[in-house]
Amino acid sequence: MIKIENLTKHFPGLDRPAVNKLSLEINEGEVCVLVGPSGCGKTTTMKMINRLHEPDEGEVYLNGKRASEMNQIDLRRGIGYVIQEIGLFPHMTIKENIATVPRELGWDRERINKRVRELLDLMGLDPEIYSDRRPAALSGGQRQRVGVARALAADPPVMLMDEPFAAVDPITRARLQNEFLRILDKMDKTIIFVTHDINEAIKMGDKIAVLREGELVQHSTPEELLDAPANEFVAQLVGRNRSIKRLHLIRVEDIIEEDADKYSVAAESGRKEIKDKLSESKVGALMVTDEQGCLLGRVDEQSLKKEGETAGELVDEIHDQVTADSTLNDSLSVMLESGEGYVPVVDEEKGFFRDIITLQDLLQEVRQG
Ligand SMILES: Nc1ncnc2c1ncn2[C@@H]1O[C@H](COP(=O)(O)OP(=O)(O)OP(=O)(O)O)[C@@H](O)[C@H]1O
Ligand SMILES: [Mg+2]
Fold first, then answer.
1. Which of 37, 116, 142, 189 has the most crowded Cβ, counting Cβ within 10 A?
2. pLDDT given for residue 180 in this prediction
3. For residues 285 and 264, is the Cβ–Cβ distance under 8 A?
4. What is the DSSP string of 9-76?
5. For position 178, what pLDDT does the model report?
């Protein structure tokens, strides 16, 4: 799909090439993560792919066609670009920002409006609230999501994403990563994703390309990178605690046992049922679910001291939950944040309670790794 051959770029004032004889192949539907320290040439590489920079040497091939021989405008329209530092147009509304490429392509108004609403929904931003705002009236994380929506607007087969989730806190970032992986699952896009966070690289990448001072040091799957770093530099980048880093590679749904019944009671359940089930629960709490099976909260011994007869009346708030497609590391973050030794798992589409995951489960995975 994308083939990079011997790509080299010099900049005045830099005594080494910013990118040096870089060769890389990215298969269709693959997420390739470029990772490496600041200044190693990640952004420069991206910009040579969509010809915001012309390479001094080498060539980029898209589906076998030389990028250098393609019309620049057509080339860029076929490649969604999420710019580092987001780069929304400040004088335009969110809707106008997202509609940039569709407008250039001459889509009619109705089609554009529909697409903008669809993308805002996808990114978890209510179109009613956000469509007509300007970027300055959004948080950093919201702006980043709009940046991703804008790049997706005309449904390009290729996406270049330069640190798309850098400006958000770790928990929100984990959510955005999971949402994005979910979206990707349905869309089959070829992605080059830049980050300097090795954990994000391990989580997002089908393949990881490690760059150092403009040169490719290792190109392999996340598993290979953890098992066999090519040299000391990669080993340092991957860092210690490789077994803990594996938590980024394992999804919650791969280890849960669908014990929803064991760890939950229906809202209408009475005190006796709650007590019986509580004595069996390995976390000293039960999740309370509504008729659809969605989480309302939890009950434990403390809740039973309150007045009320049913689980629905005794229910207490839960701190947080994870979706089944989250990684074990996301679950660990939530547990550390909440101070609880477990976190409930819900279905990512419908929100049904599926199981709980405990610190013990994570420890077991780390030991096995
Ligand atoms: N337009 C430019 N003119 C001169 N030097 C440049 C230019 N763009 C980038 N460079 C230099 O090229 C090198 C690679 O820059 P690049 O932006 O590709 O790094 P990066 O890996 O994206 O870093 P970061 O993680 O900080 O975004 C750096 O030393 C940078 O200073
Ligand atoms: Mg950069």
1. 116
2. 83
3. no
4. E--TT-SS-SEEEEEEEE-TT-EEEEE-STTSSHHHHHHHHTTSS--SEEEEEETTEEGGGS-HHHHH
5. 84
Strands 342-346 and 353-358: antiparallel
Query: What is the 363 CA–ligand 2 centroid distance (Å)?
Result: 36
The pLDDT score that the predictor gives to residue 331 is 94
- Residues with C-beta less than 6 Å from any ligand 1 atom: 11, 13-14, 18, 38-44, 84, 196
- Looking at ligand 1, which residue's alpha carbon is closest to its atom 25? 38
Ligand 1, atom 24, residue with closest C-alpha: 38
Q: Where in the chain is the domain with CATH 3.10.580.10?
A: 253-368
- Low-confidence residues of the chain: pLDDT under 70: 369
Q: Mapping DSSP to helix (H, G, I), strand (E, B) and coil, where does residue 139 land?
A: coil
CATH 3.30.1160.10 for domain 2-250, yes or no, is: no
Q: CA 41, CA 34: separation in Å to the nearest integer? A: 9
Determine the atom of ligand 1 nearest the C-alpha atom of 211: 21
What is the predicted pLDDT for the residue at 27?
A: 95
Please give the pLDDT value at position 369.
64
Per-residue pLDDT of 155-183, as tens digits, reads 899 999 999 888 777 777 887 888 888 88
Q: Ligand 1 atom closest to Cα of 214? A: 14
Ligand 2 is a single-atom ion; what residues have CB below 5 A from it? 42-43, 84
CA of 34 relative to ligand 1 center, distance in Å: 14
Residue 173: its pLDDT value, please? 82
Q: Is there a contact between 326 and 320 (Cβ–Cβ < 8 Å)?
A: no
**What's the gap in Å between 45 CA and the centre of ligand 1?**
10
Q: Nearest C-alpha to atom 26 of ligand 1 is from which residue?
A: 38
* Predicted local confidence at residue 287, as pLDDT: 96
- Ligand 2 center to 42 CA (angstroms): 5
Reported pTM: 0.82
CATH topology assigned to domain 253-368: CBS-domain (3.10.580)
CATH 3.40.50.300 domain locations along the chain? 2-250
pLDDT for the residue numbered 102:
94
The ligand 1 atom nearest the CA atom of 46: 18
53 CA closest ligand 1 atom index? 1
